[in-house]
């Protein structure tokens, strides 16, 4: 059992402890399949743990749903972003193969997974410190919106740091003519755009106290994430806070 854990966890740990080694292996094309497989397993694990805590304030059933959905969100985002990243890498003449782009993209999400896993105690504190289900509707709505914003910020920071962690080594594997900075920012933008909208489709995650607990909302394909946050969440929090 220990040998199996060491075999499949070592590529994930190496991204944290030995990123130069990760880049050297990536450039030589060594064991990328093993690395990607290990990263996928770790992303599923870290996403399930974070997801279970994320929805814990609403109900145990939603907590179970989100423990399943959050890894789907992370892997779905990474998969779709990989295609966009490969197109960007081709446009900027990076010289990267699709397999290399795949490893880099999953590596970024793997680092983000470490951050989310490390912040589970913090998110647990915020989750279980909110108002109980018997509170007034106004208090429940404020609690939900504050929790939602907190998780959005934490997940966004984890994604940014995950991409930033691999930013410095990117120049070591791309072609000299590639504008590394522009490539990096295009990848970061792809993560943000795809991740936010996919999270909207897969909602609920935090779980509104005014809606029944379901795996997916019946209106999941209506409106979009940005419209909801800027038209309903932020104005309400500012109004109550003022």
Can you characterise this structure?
The protein is mainly alpha-helical and 242 residues long. It has one domain (2-241). The chain has ten helices and no strands. The protein has helices at 2-17, 19-28, 32-54, 60-91, 98-118, 120-128, 137-165, 167-170, 180-201, 225-241. α7 (137-165) packs antiparallel against α9.
Structural class: mainly alpha
Share of β-strand residues? under 5%
Radius of gyration: 19 Å
Main sheet characteristics? none
How many structural domains can be distinguished in the coordinates?
A: 1
Order of helices and strands: HHHHHHHHHH
Q: What level of helicity do the residues show?
A: over 70%
Tally of separate helices: 10
Q: In angstroms, what separates the terminal alpha carbons?
A: 56 Å
General form: elongated
**pLDDT < 50 stretches:** 1-9
How confident is the prediction overall: mean pLDDT? 82
Brief summary:
The chain is mostly helical and 242 residues long. It contains 10 helices and no strands.
Relevant terms:
mainly alpha; 10 helices; 242 residues; disordered N terminus
Topology (elements, then pairings):
Layout (H helix, E strand, L loop, with lengths): L1 H16 L1 H10 L3 H23 L5 H32 L6 H21 L1 H9 L8 H29 L1 H4 L9 H22 L23 H17 L1
């Amino acid at each position: 059992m220990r040998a199996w854990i060491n075999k499949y966890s070592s590529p994930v740990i190496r991204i944290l402890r030995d990123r130069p080694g990760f880049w050297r292996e990536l450039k030589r094309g060594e064991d990328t399949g093993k690395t990607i497989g290990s990263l996928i397993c770790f992303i599923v694990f870290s996403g399930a743990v974070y997801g279970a805590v994320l929805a814990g304030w609403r109900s145990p059933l939603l907590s179970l749903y989100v423990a399943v959905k959050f890894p789907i969100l992370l892997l779905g985002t990474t998969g779709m972003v990989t295609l966009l990243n490969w197109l960007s890498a081709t446009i900027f003449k990076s010289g990267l193969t699709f397999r290399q782009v795949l490893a880099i993209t999953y590596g970024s999400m793997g680092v983000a997974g470490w951050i989310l896993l490390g912040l589970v105690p913090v998110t647990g504190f915020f989750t279980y410190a909110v108002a109980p289900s018997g509170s007034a509707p106004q208090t429940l709505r404020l609690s939900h919106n504050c929790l939602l914003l907190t998780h959005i910020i934490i997940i966004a920071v984890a994604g940014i740091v995950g991409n930033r962690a691999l930013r410095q080594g990117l120049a070591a594997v791309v072609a000299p003519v590639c504008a590394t900075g522009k490539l990096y920012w295009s990848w970061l933008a792809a993560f943000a755009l795809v991740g936010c909208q996919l999270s909207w489709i897969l909602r609920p995650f935090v779980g509104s106290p005014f809606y029944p607990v379901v795996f997916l909302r019946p209106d999941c394909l209506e409106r979009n994430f940005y419209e909801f946050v800027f038209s309903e969440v932020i104005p309400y929090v500012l109004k109550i806070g003022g």
